[in-house]
Amino acid sequence: MSTIRLLVLGAVRQHGRAHGYQVRNDLEYWGAHEWSNAKPGSIYHALKQMAKQGLLVAHEIAPSTVGGPPRTEYEITEKGTEEYLGLVRQYLTAYDQRPDVLAAALGFMVDLERAEVLTLLEQRVRGIEEWHKAVTEHYVPEEGPGQLGHIGEIMNFWVHSADTGADWTRGLIERIRGGAYTFSGEGDPFVGVLAEDQENPFATGERHAGDRG
């Protein structure tokens, strides 16, 4: 699974309209460049590709007063919104060992209703439990993974990671049931995007040719 589509669609949607550098700045603010494939080149490429696919609409705006080429602002379309919400749902339920998949979905889960998020997370726990059962029945020797030599530690790692993931998800379910966070239909949710002139304390400072687009 690639998380870049979800991250870019979510950032544009939260702004309403955003140019490429704003999207990049937001993803760096969220630390996504550390835990996902959200690098400058992939962000700008995703914006252009999704505009071609009809998920975003590109608006060319006048250049700044200091000169330079016109900037392109992106706005999510109805098709893009459907794609975005579908990815949030898919990534909340999927049992994937890559943490960026779940992390991206968690960042946007409040765009769904509370009851639906609880259902999706419960489905995720069941998926982990089913995976754990299948692995321990078919791949782990009765005497333990140590019977496979040091290679057994690979499966030992995945099994323990699954157990930890399930426990964490159950905790999140209880927090949401207890009223944590503001979900769709409950009021104004927390929005984590930066204003145009707001300084980003977590910016990498790395320059990229696409920053003006």
Please tell me about this protein's structure:
The protein has 213 residues and is mostly helical. 54% of the residues lie in helices and 7% in strands. It has helices spanning 4-15, 20-29, 32-35, 40-52, 78-93, 99-108, 114-138, 152-177, and strands at 18-19, 56-61, 71-76. Strands 1-3-2 form a 3-stranded antiparallel beta sheet. Helix 2 crosses helix 4 (40-52), helix 5 (78-93) crosses helix 6 and helix 7 packs antiparallel against helix 8 (152-177). It starts with a helix and ends in a 36-residue tail after the last helix.
Q: Main β-sheet, in a few words?
A: 3 strands, antiparallel
| Record field, number of beta strands | 3
Mean of pLDDT: 84
Beta-strand portion reads: 5-15%
Cα shape: globular
- Sketch the topology as an H/E string, one letter per element: HEHHHEEHHHH
The strand order across the widest sheet is: 1-3-2
Q: Enumerate the spans where pLDDT stays under 50 for 5 or more consecutive residues.
A: none
Distance between the termini: 26 Å
**Cα gyration radius (Å):** 20 Å
Q: What is the count of DSSP helices, taking H or I runs of 4+ residues?
A: 8
What is the helical fraction, as a range of percent? 40-55%
